[in-house]
Specification:
Length: about 550
């Protein structure tokens, strides 16, 4: 007696709560490849109809094309009444908007996309937030809380099973997961069941265990009578031994259900490639790999260790291959290592010569390499006089240590006549050299006494020359002629200093025809001397 209340509770749950409408079964249904449509007759409000569709995994029908309209015509079969469609006004709208395609309505799927409408003529309607369709396929606005005569549901699926081929004396009845039953379906959604009473078969549309998609099958393995859909065999069905059995092509084997065919490589543990051979499989590896001892995984091959070596100079092994590289000073050109040219980088001012271990810069005649930067070239003269280098505008230039004498002649400046050195001086074209007596050392152009351990000067008394240390010269400024007014100023200054006047006269005597229009002096060392004079451009006062 204690079980009676529990049984009554279960019975109440099965029948539904008091006041709730009982679930309806589809009065008609039709399925395409990915969609099914069903019609339910029964007085329901819009909300109750929507819940009825959702209970079986669908929603109220969306009519976006003429294909959906034709499906409605087949389902109604000229029966009168009004059925709910999946259109409703959003909460933000209370009245319809007749000038818009869907009149402001929105599909229950949340969008307004459509290629088709079939509205009955009407103006703006307020308070009528849902839509029904009639036997004439016209859409009409209606209050959502008012009951309609029925509703249309739509179910979407990822695929379907085809209807089983007809066989004489073997009628087939189908049942869909949303409750529709019949024998005239064009396609059946997943989880549909096919009943064949004559053979005592109950088949189910489900996923193929071997990954072949949806197909009809049953729980027990092996073929059923070949008369119905070829026994369910993916290959061929044969009843020669009195029992139906399936067989597969030579390159395939029977699946676990005894009906499907699969490749021996399906599920094989091969890391790279699988090849069918003699009804079984063999694992193979990509180029640059070799099969490991387990027969399925692949290991990288050290291509650089092969003989002969695959690269001309350097080989770097990579996963599944290798990379050829070149030594320093070489570069890869069309797969070969060639000595890398340096001169193409324009490292030299004048011209460049390729050497086995690098390059060497050269200079045009009349120039020499800059001692501070061998890639640059400076004007150079190895004699006391050389022609000047002039450009198209008539501006001429002399090497460092020379000054322009006349129109186009560069004359060496004798720095020794200008007392640049403290003791002994030797003039060279474009420069000079200072030397010191014993007990002194040369610092730039000055002779500094050498101090002993006691701090006293070390001096032997003889004037033996110290090691000759050439004093480098900087490039002078571009030589230009000086105006006569400047020469007059220089002459006046020279008169004020008797020693300077004598030095200039002696210098002019040695150079004979030296021009009075220029008195530039060559810079004699890295530190500027007090006696050095710089070129004064034409038009400036001294």
């Amino acid at each position: 007696m204690r079980r009676l209340p529990a049984l009554l509770l279960l019975l109440g749950l099965a029948l539904g709560q008091p006041g709730e409408p009982q679930p309806l079964l589809p009065a008609g249904a039709q399925c395409l490849e990915h969609e099914c449509f069903a019609v339910f007759w029964g007085s329901r409000s819009f909300a109750a109809a929507s819940a009825g569709c959702e209970r079986a995994g669908g929603h109220l029908m969306t009519v976006r094309s003429t294909v959906a309209e034709e499906a409605i015509a087949l389902l109604l079969q000229n029966r009168g009444g009004r059925l709910w469609l999946g259109l409703s006004l959003p909460p933000s709208l209370n009245c319809t908007e007749p000038d818009r395609l869907l009149r402001g309505f929105r599909w229950v799927t949340g969008d307004r996309r459509t290629d088709y409408t079939n509205w009955a003529p009407s103006g703006p309607r307020c308070g009528e937030g849902c839509v029904t369709v009639s036997r004439e396929l016209r859409w009409e606005e209606r209050r959502c809380e008012e009951p309609a005569d029925g509703f249309l549901c739509e179910y979407s699926y990822g695929g379907s099973c085809p209807r089983l081929p007809a066989a004489p004396g073997l009628p087939v009845t189908y049942a869909t997961p949303f409750g529709a039953r019949g024998g005239e379906f064009l396609a059946l959604p997943p989880r549909s069941v096919a009943f064949v009473p004559a053979l005592g078969l109950e088949l189910r549309c489900d996923e193929d265990g071997d990954g072949g998609g949806l197909r009809w099958g049953r729980d027990s393995p092996g073929a059923w009578p070949c008369l119905l859909a070829g026994g369910g065999c993916a290959g061929t069905c044969d009843e020669a031994g009195g029992r139906p059995r399936c067989s597969c092509p030579e390159s395939s084997v029977l699946g676990a259900d005894g009906r499907g065919c699969r490749s021996p490589c399906a599920g094989a543990p091969c890391q790279h490639h699988c090849v069918v051979a003699n009804g079984s499989f063999v694992c193979m590896c990509a180029v640059g790999y070799q099969l490991a001892a387990d027969g399925s995984s692949c290991e990288d091959t050290d291509d650089c260790a092969s003989e002969p070596a695959p690269c001309e100079q350097k080989c770097v092994n990579t996963k599944g291959g290798f990379e050829c590289q070149c030594y320093s000073g070489y570069r890869m050109v069309d797969g070969r290592c060639q000595r890398e040219p340096h001169c193409y980088q324009k490292l030299c001012q004048h011209f460049c010569e390729e050497l086995p271990d690098g390059h060497r810069c050269g200079c045009n005649p009349g120039y020499a390499a800059d001692p501070l930067d061998p890639s640059l070239c400076l004007l150079h003269c190895n004699d006391s006089q050389c022609p000047a280098v002039c450009d198209a505008s008539g501006s001429c230039e002399c090497p460092k240590g020379f000054l322009l004498d006349g129109e186009d002649l560069c004359v060496d400046i004798d720095e020794c006549d200008m007392n640049h050195c403290e003791f002994d001086c030797t003039n060279h074209p474009g420069g000079f050299e200072c030397r010191c007596p014993a007990g002194y050392r040369l610092v730039n152009i000055d002779c500094i006494p050498i101090l002993g351990d006691d701090g006293e000067e070390v001096f032997s008394g003889d004037l033996e020359p110290a090691p000759q240390t050439p004093v480098p010269s900087r490039p002078p400024p571009k030589a230009e002629r000086l105006p006569r007014g400047v020469l007059v100023g220089i002459a006046v200054g020279a008169l004020l200093t008797v020693l300077a006047l004598l030095a200039v006269g002696f210098h002019l005597a040695r150079k004979r025809c030296r021009s009075h229009s220029s008195m530039d002096y060559k810079y004699g060392g890295p530190h500027e001397k007090e006696l050095g004079l710089q070129a004064v451009p034409s038009g400036q006062k001294p």
